[in-house]
Design the sequence.
């Protein structure tokens, strides 16, 4: 008998979400990923981890936790797509970060096939996924949100219905772009301060405790001081957030001068080959330009 609940994508966020879904509910959760290595540690009395997408067939609720919109569309509608295998009227909850336009297109296509859709991107990093304290930003109908809410509460501490389809992804874009702007500001200002003779460690204490502190400074500054640029999400993959913001701005005629400047900082780091490193590596081009190192 098919399980009513499934999740596709068991990366740093998807795996702990699968565990919370299984541990906090009565259903068996089918957890699917193409990479067998990601199935390690996911065994449990109500958790069936597998590489076989066919196990999703008949699911009434499907969570997606995938890298971007193109991967989501392929997973749902590609040659081995799962959308048509779901139960009639099934609810697809997309936890991935995609563009606003992607969410609108995916939602319309699912609804045309008799399935419901909720775009529900998440924020809180892998630590929040492990703790079950994620922020979940949802876009979709009231009915879809209310149907998903008890499940979202299993891994989210803040679960918000932001509006119609696409509103969740639009909110995530706003959140991520503000985060990117904070990191870009740190990347250009900290090397300037060190070039002027300020001590990097003491400077780090100020920007992580004073009025300029932010999640970005508190997360990245200690890692910059230790020259650790490989703990966060790769910059090249995260670039899609700025692309999405630029598309929304262009379509609606919104001026975003500060976002455009931060995007140029981001692009400079990408052009210099830092796409596999995390966003803290945005500081490297400015360190090279000024001939300094912001290190402890």
Sequence:
């Amino acid at each position: 008998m098919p399980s009513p609940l499934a999740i596709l994508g068991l990366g740093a966020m998807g795996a702990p979400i699968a565990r919370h879904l299984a541990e906090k509910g009565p259903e068996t959760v089918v957890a699917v990923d193409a990479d067998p290595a990601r199935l390690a540690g996911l065994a449990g009395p109500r958790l069936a981890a597998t590489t076989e997408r066919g196990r999703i067939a008949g699911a009434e609720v499907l969570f997606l936790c995938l890298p971007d919109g193109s991967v989501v569309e392929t997973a749902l509608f590609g040659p081995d797509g799962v959308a048509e295998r779901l139960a009639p009227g099934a609810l697809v909850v997309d936890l991935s970060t995609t563009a606003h336009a992607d969410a609108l297109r995916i939602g319309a296509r699912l609804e045309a096939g008799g399935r419901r859709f909720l775009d529900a991107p998440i924020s809180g990093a892998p630590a929040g996924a492990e703790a079950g304290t994620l922020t979940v930003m949802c876009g979709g109908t009231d009915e879809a949100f209310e149907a998903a809410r008890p499940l979202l509460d299993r891994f989210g501490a803040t679960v918000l219905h932001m509006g119609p389809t696409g509103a969740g992804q639009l909110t995530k874009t706003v959140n991520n772009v503000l985060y990117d702007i904070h990191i870009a500001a740190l990347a250009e200002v900290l090397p300037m301060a060190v070039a002027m003779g300020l001590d990097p460690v003491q400077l780090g204490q100020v920007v992580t405790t004073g009025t300029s502190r932010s999640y970005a400074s508190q997360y990245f500054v200690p890692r910059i001081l230790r020259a650790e640029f490989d703990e966060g999400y790769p910059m090249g993959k995260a670039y899609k957030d700025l692309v999405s913001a630029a598309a929304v701005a262009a379509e609606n005629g919104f001026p975003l001068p500060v976002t455009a400047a931060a995007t140029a900082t981001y692009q400079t780091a990408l052009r210099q080959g830092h796409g596999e490193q995390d966003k803290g590596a945005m500081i490297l081009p400015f360190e090279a330009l000024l001939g300094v190192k912001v290190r402890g």
